[in-house]
Specification:
Oligomer: heterodimer
Largest sheet of chain B: 7 strands, mixed
Strand content of chain B: 15-25%
Mean pLDDT of chain A: 91
Number of helices of chain A: 12
Number of helices of chain B: 23
Low-confidence stretches of chain B: none
Largest interface: A-B, 51 and 63 residues
CATH class of the largest domain in chain A: Alpha Beta
Number of strands of chain B: 27
CATH architecture of the largest domain in chain A: 3-Layer(bba) Sandwich
Largest sheet of chain A: 5 strands, parallel
CATH topology of the largest domain in chain B: Rossmann fold
Number of domains of chain A: 4
CATH architecture of the largest domain in chain B: 3-Layer(aba) Sandwich
Number of strands of chain A: 28
Shape of chain B: globular
Mean pLDDT of chain B: 94
Strand order of the largest sheet of chain B: 4-3-17-16-15-5-6
Structural class of chain A: alpha/beta
Distance between the termini of chain B: 43 Å
Radius of gyration of chain B: 25 Å
Low-confidence stretches of chain A: 399-407
Chain lengths: ~475, ~700
């Protein structure tokens, strides 16, 4: 099948799909139409860009290239003509498709507040979603000393951490009682707030915004409790909404997102949707991992590589990773019930862990701060594998493992069969026997037994045993 | 090491040399035990057609049988129907002679060697990045002064213990040692930081490390601009490997990835080394390339005290891959499909270039084609034991049994020799002169202490004699002109048995190649404690350090190649739910043909074992020491359980040194790397049960 696939959207989902298609069929005709004027870029790196640690080229992603691939940036699609199987771009071009994929993503939500017109935001008020948003924030942050972030979810906190890293005094305003309430319990939220405070990010919780006033000199955010906060810029991070306008206008089934089945098909068999714009089994994903999994399945189906491929959502792991903040949240860590629960809290050092186990499987976890087992916990949760019999391994990781866990026993307590020199399999008993046979120095014992002649790592242990032998009047060699 | 012989026999004495610094492990100390071992072969063996048994025979009988068998097969099925399989333990002279014998003695394209199972992925990655493949482009001693040393899939504390002296020194001087290994190995226990990824995810870990280096500003942009090409594609590729993504795949915590990247990105002298753990995968070349990309992005190769390198696995793992026993190669690390290389080597060999065969196929493909329609029907094996060492070994054993003629030259009756039609007893290391090239690209001497025992011949003598007999057999008696020089004498002169003569020719053949030995003489090796190639002239310098000014590419720049993670060739499933990986133990070596016969080594590591986590063992109802059966889609093996908290609960390990019921390679996967032909020894899916 060499039918032409047209992908609307060159974001993380659309660009990935083009790459997956191209990797499976090098001559596949793929047209990618990106509304943004940029190369495909990695949205996850925008907060790093905001923090000033990288430059714009560093957020670029690999784009499919080669025979059959037609990739156009800055070409918004304004309509889908399903009967003609064409899409229409904003400059009037009509592009025919055999299969159409909507990867239109999501748009930042601008809250309904006096002073905020979504179509005409003040210069110093910027949502945090796209590369262009990032540029506007950076322009506004230039010379600024303070910033407000409205919204204490994952993205808002990453933006706040990035702005704080640029030296701006940053305040997060969040209407709920604790940060990231969808991923965290109140204790974790409090520990996280403490960690953020250490980086110059202050937090206002449980208070809504009631209005915004902005001019060239700054921004004022009015709060429901009557206070007003002032800053040089305001970043909006109030969630996203799937961009379903095209699908809706084309008459596809749309609920919160464009409704798709396990094959990522919309209500029109010739049209699929993936990524943030798609709603599968009532769920909007909003994360990269599921979007890429969907791209993979759709590529398998469209190319016939695996016509039976089906999208099966995997449990979601949320990871906040900003300089100095290490947070992982997955599943349901805080529901009640008869499950096993493990907790560890060291708020002074910003560490908190809460894990729920049911039938020897992790059903949820919150890990904040220094949790050496975080990689293991994520894998066990992701793969549904049984948890360790010693549950402490989930909290302490390899601190409990083999590394450094075998302090050298005193020679007297060491069994004779214990191997002292691994390289030459020399036991303590063999060292003692060489002593009894007349070897009286470390060098003589080494010459007689070859202990310590390989990697040399046991030389101290051999010396210790020789010292012990030379101090002991008589040594009982028992076996 | 040095050897002394007296009435009591030969004894080994460690030598103070810059690589081992006077250290020897148990394998070295006991090496002399094999010289007079009762199992040693001292007469050729020929299989009796009637009884099917191997019987002692004279050399004449044995070699005539070999020549007749070769002739019969080649007359019937063409020259390529005879194949040669070499080894990374052979001296340079033997590797060279074997490649030459295949190409112009047998005139077959089908030659490859067990180094394909060892070094090929790192070699291919090095070639495409640097234009040259030398294990370490710097002296081993640099390890001792590295501020950060990253070992990827390397366990020298068991595989190369004297090397650990450098690691000890490195850490004593404040250096940081980081080890990436799915097991808590003896080496990992010494590390400041141990990353324990799921097998088969090393590539993703490398890409995440480079991702972090980019976001933290540790990439050496000036170096990348001045000394490399292709970075933008790699930069965009690793942009997709943010650390949390690699964490979910590999299980390595983001914080550990960051700490590793920091140590690599901010250390002064930084060395990254890979070994078989990263390389023995169907994506081995790409995995090594990912670490090479990281090293290049950090500006390490060519910087004093820094760089990327690979730890070789066999005694002559480096030299064995330079002089033509590899399917696609001619001496001096030349390509057999390069017209200029063919012209040069054919000139040294005194044949027209168009008489040289073209490239053959990589080792596994070669072994798997034996005795099949269109595949070789005769095989000559020197210094290798594929019945134990090949992946999917039961299948390869079957292929070997299907041959018309199997000839094995070995000092002991290895499992492969036991299947042979003709077994030729060969000399050992202490009985022959020659050279080896170590992991530093340093050419070293091997000196004979004593002649081989009666009845035993050197590999070079065998090759020489075979060549002469084949030439004789080629002559139609009716055409023979009694006045002319006998073809056998010509052939014998073309394949000298004297290693000094062979080395002199190797020098000429390698001249102008990447691995140029032209300026290396045995005297110079003796005088200088080894000579680093390339060394084009006798009075010019050798090359302890490569890449200071340029890389061995046409434009002098190193090449980045974008590489992406891909799943293992075989993933776990309900039926085969565990990852299986293989490796070595300290007291054994390779297929164990030699080490399993040394009493002290046998005592230290008597049999195979299956290492598994106590939690996994509990779920499977297995106690420490219980016999267990490990089954994959390709076969099974049995060995006692050894419980260890140092292995991931989703992974089991076994050493590959053992034969018979304990042969780990009965289950390993024969999927191979598309570039290097390296089989995927390090990961497959298995089921484990109490046997």
């Amino acid at each position: 099948m060499t039918a032409r696939v047209v992908i609307v959207g060159n974001g993380m989902a659309g660009a990935r799909l083009a790459g997956e298609l191209h990797a499976r069929e090098g001559d596949r005709k793929v047209t990618v139409l990106g509304a943004e004027p940029h190369r495909a870029y990695n949205r996850i790196l925008l907060s790093t860009l905001l923090a000033g640690r990288i430059d714009e080229p560093d957020v670029e992603l690999t784009e499919a290239a080669g025979h059959g691939v037609d990739l156009r940036s800055g070409v918004p699609v304004i309509a889908v003509d399903r009967s003609a199987r064409e899409v229409r771009t904003d400059d009037g071009e009509r592009i025919g498709y055999d299969h159409l994929v909507l990867a239109t993503g999501a748009r930042a939500v601008v809250p309904t507040l006096p002073g905020l017109d979504p179509a005409n935001l003040p210069e110093r008020v910027v949502p945090f979603r796209t590369l262009d948003d990032c540029r506007r924030i950076l322009a506004a942050a230039d010379g600024a000393r303070s910033a407000l972030v409205l919204g204490g979810g994952l993205l808002g906190l990453e933006a706040a951490r990035g702005l704080a890293a640029r030296g701006l005094a940053t305040t997060v305003v969040h209407p709920r009682e604790h940060l990231m309430e969808r991923q965290l319990d109140p204790t974790a939220g409090a520990v996280l707030a403490g960690t953020l405070a250490g980086f110059g990010v202050s937090v206002q919780l449980g208070v809504s915004a009631t209005g915004v006033a902005a001019d060239a000199s700054g921004v004022r955010l009015d709060l429901a409790d009557g206070r007003s906060l002032h800053a040089d810029l305001l970043v909006l991070s109030c969630g996203v909404r799937p961009d379903t306008a095209l699908a809706q206008a084309a008459g596809l089934t749309v609920r919160r997102g464009v409704v798709v089945d396990d094959r990522l098909r919309t209500s029109d068999r010739s049209i699929s949707a993936i990524g943030d714009c798609a709603e599968h089994d009532g769920v909007l994903t909003g994360l990269v991992a599921p979007a890429w999994a969907q791209a993979q399945v759709l590529a398998d189906v469209l190319t016939g590589t695996d016509p039976l491929a089906r999208y099966r959502p995997r449990p979601v792991v949320t990871r906040l990773k900003a300089a100095g903040i290490d947070l992982a949240s997955m599943g349901d860590a805080s529901s009640g019930g008869p499950d096993e629960e493990l907790t560890f809290a060291d708020p002074t050092r910003g560490t908190y862990a809460r894990l729920r186990i049911r039938d020897e499987r992790l059903i949820g976890a919150i890990l904040l701060g220094d949790n050496p087992a975080v990689g293991t916990v994520i894998q066990l949760f992701d793969r549904g594998q049984p948890v360790p019999s010693d549950r402490r391994a989930l909290l302490l990781g390899r601190a409990l493992g083999a590394i450094g866990a075998t302090p050298a026993a005193s020679p007297a307590l060491m069994p004779d069969a214990a191997t002292v020199c691994q390289c030459n399999t020399v036991s303590k008993g063999a060292l003692v026997r060489s002593w009894r046979s007349g070897a009286r120095t470390v060098d003589a014992v080494v010459a007689a037994t070859r202990a310590g002649t390989g990697c040399g790592g046991c030389r101290d242990a051999v010396s210790g045993i020789v010292d012990w032998l030379s101090q002991a009047e008589s040594v009982e060699v028992t076996r | 090491m040095t050897l002394r012989a007296d009435d009591a026999g030969v004894t080994v004495h460690p030598r103070e040399f810059p690589t081992n610094r006077g250290g020897l492990c148990q394998k070295g100390w006991t090496a002399a035990e094999l010289l007079d071992h009762p199992d040693r072969l001292t007469t050729p063996l020929v299989r009796d057609a009637a009884t099917g048994e191997l019987h002692p025979a004279s050399w004449d009988t044995a070699l005539d049988r070999v020549v007749a068998g070769i002739r019969a097969v080649q007359d019937d099925a063409g020259r390529d129907a005879v194949a040669v399989f070499g080894g990374g333990g052979l001296t340079n002279e033997k590797a060279y002679a074997l490649g030459k014998f295949a190409r112009i003695g047998l005139r077959t394209r089908n030659i490859d060697y067990n180094g394909r199972f060892c070094m090929s992925s790192a070699a291919a990655a090095g070639m495409r990045a640097f234009g040259i493949d030398r294990g370490l482009p710097f002296p081993l001693a640099d390890l001792g002064r590295a501020d950060t040393l990253l070992l990827v899939g390397a366990n020298p504390a068991e595989t190369m213990p004297p090397l650990v002296r450098w690691l000890t020194e490195q850490r004593r001087d404040g250096g940081k040692l980081i080890v990436i290994d799915p097991r808590v190995t003896a080496t990992a226990r010494q590390a400041d930081l141990h990353l324990q990824p799921l097998p088969g995810t090393d590539l993703a870990v490398a890409n995440a490390l480079l991702h972090i280096a980019l976001t933290e500003g540790w990439v050496d942009r000036a170096y990348v601009a001045d000394r490399t090409t292709g970075f933008d594609a790699v930069r965009r590729g690793v942009a997709a490997w943010w650390p949390a993504r690699a964490e979910q795949l590999s299980g390595v915590p983001v914080a550990d990835l960051e700490a590793t990247a920091r140590a690599l990105g901010t250390g002064g002298r930084v060395i990254i080394l890979t070994a078989r753990g990263a390389e023995q995968h169907a994506k081995g070349v790409d995995t090594v390339t990912a670490y090479v990309n990281l090293a290049l992005a950090l500006g390490l190769p060519g910087r004093d005290g820094s760089g990327y390198g690979c730890l070789t696995g066999q005694g002559n793992g480096q030299g064995g891959r330079e002089h033509g026993q590899k399917a696609d190669q001619l001496p001096g690390y030349r390509r057999i499909d390069d017209p200029a290389a063919r012209e040069h080597v054919a000139g040294v060999w005194g044949v027209p270039a168009d008489e040289l065969p073209g490239p053959g196929v990589p080792a596994y493909q070669l072994l798997d084609s034996l005795g099949t329609p269109g595949g070789p029907r005769a095989l000559l094996v020197f210094g290798s034991n594929p019945v134990v060492s090949a992946p999917r070994a039961a299948r390869i054993e079957g292929r070997l049994r299907n041959l018309d003629l199997l000839v094995v030259a070995d000092l002991l009756l290895s499992e492969t020799a036991a299947l042979a039609d003709v077994v030729l007893p060969t000399a050992q290391w202490a009985e022959e002169d020659g050279t080896m090239t170590n992991l530093e690209g340093r050419v070293l001497r091997r000196r004979a202490l004593r002649p081989p025992p009666p009845g035993v011949r050197t590999d070079l003598a065998i090759i020489s004699d075979l060549a002469a007999r084949l030439a004789e057999a080629d002559v139609d008696p009716a055409d023979a002109n009694p006045a002319s020089v006998r073809p056998a004498a010509v052939a014998a002169a073309r394949f000298p048995a004297d290693p000094a003569v062979v080395f002199a020719e190797l020098r000429r053949a390698s001249a102008g190649g990447a691995a140029d030995y032209a300026g290396i003489s045995w005297d110079r090796i003796d005088a200088d404690d080894g000579v680093y190639w390339p060394c084009p002239t006798e009075d010019g310098p050798d090359t302890p350090r490569l890449f200071a000014d340029r890389f061995a590419t046409p434009d002098g720049r190193a090449r980045f190649h974008p590489v992406d993670h891909r799943p293992a060739a075989e993933e776990v499933c309900v039926t085969y739910p565990l990852h299986f990986t293989t490796g070595r133990v300290l007291a054994q070596y390779q297929s164990g043909t030699q080490t399993r016969r040394v009493a002290a080594l046998r005592r230290a590591a008597p049999e195979a074992f299956v290492e598994l986590h106590p939690d996994l063992a509990t779920r499977l109802g297995i106690d420490d020491g219980d016999p267990v059966r490990v089954t994959s889609r390709r076969g099974e093996f049995r060995a006692p359980a050894r419980l260890s908290a140092g292995i991931r609960p989703d992974t089991v390990f076994a050493p590959f040194h053992y034969a018979g019921a304990g042969r780990a390679n009965s289950v390993t996967n024969d999927a191979v790397d598309p570039i290097s032909g390296m089989p995927e020894f390090k990961i497959c899916a298995v089921r484990v049960e109490k046997a």
